[in-house]
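Provenance and format

Records in this collection were gathered into a single text stream. Each protein contributes a sequence line and a token line. The two records reproduced below are adjacent in the stream.
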Amino acid sequence: MRYQISGKQIDIGEALQTHVKAELGEVIEKYAQRPTECVVVFSRSAHEYVCETVIRLSTGLTAQAKGTATEIYAAFEACRERMDKQLRRYKRRIRNHHVDRKGPVEFGGASQYILAASEETEDAEPDTLAPVVIAEMETKIPSITVGEAVMQLELAGQKLLVFRNEGHGGVNVVYRREDGNIGWIDPRNSR
């Protein structure tokens, strides 16, 4: 597995890197059998340290966790505990994820755009209805089942996930609703 441990305007020493690899290695070995990459980023927010961790599994799933504390090791431990809890909660589903899948998750390419925010007042008419594109990036869309998409949404703590439905190949969306439930948009089923 590949570890990428870095700090945003913070110097990360060898001792902390060794500690992170050992602790996360235990958590990952316990719950996820085939991780491919682990990215850990330390930063500061006012007087607190922030540790953000992303673990990518060979199944295409991504787990994310974040921890904060006044000490850098305590911030990592808070993050590790959240990751442990998250992976423990989904352990059976993560392991069973391999049973039905014949090969690794396939990803299709797509363009992602960032549009400029409108600075106009509510009463003023916009000059044009064409938005201003301020960034264009490449993104990947996984080809997974609806159940896997919901699990990915919950594991990563995202609000929305666009995916290609393995059942019929169409593009679908799952999202977290304000009432706490999960919404699923499948344009193929519209009449």
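Adjacent record:
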Amino acid sequence: MTTIRVLLADDQKMVRQGFTVLLDAEPDITVVGQAVDGLEAVERTAELAPDVVLMDVRMPRLGGIEATRRITESRTGGAADPKVLVLTTFDLDEYVFEALRAGASGFLLKDASAAELADAVRVVARGEALLAPNLTKLLIEKFAGMPDGPGGGRLKERVADLTERETEVLALVARGLSNLEIAGELVVAEQTVKTHVSRVLVKLGLRDRTQAAVFAYETGLVRPGRL
């Protein structure tokens, strides 16, 4: 069994300790380190090479969004690159979306159950797009779909570089479907889907599936209510 290595970044000691106890109780997950702020999170990620970083949004010295950006910008594109899972509360919607745009793989509310926490870590470690439940997709719909948002003609021109099938795959990624689910939807092999996703990322200059999903909403390829 492959063990998922996790780094916890939160300025609240009780949160770090609580999550450590919950995650270490899982047979396939281990907490390899903790960080008290974003700067230490970046440093410890480089030092420990965790599979997943649980990142709080509001921390001293360096916030979670900028820390996420620095970590994701250091990725090489390999399967071993660290994934970032943002920890937040309901009143931080804007920050959550910015974290997703910065390269986070999804987010989790701090009051999540032990099972939800462990499942979220596993989903992110597998390199899946956005996290269930659907709250993540609702956030993207809310902020990426705004009329005066960061989308526009320049981004839509990049979509034109995709083939019809690649555009179709991108839209399904944005809906939160896994490679296996997309394969079932399009009646093709899962490896074929993986190839299409890789080509989409290269053509659009995106780092991962999460940024591809955000891009799809920003350009209007996927719109609120059309999931």
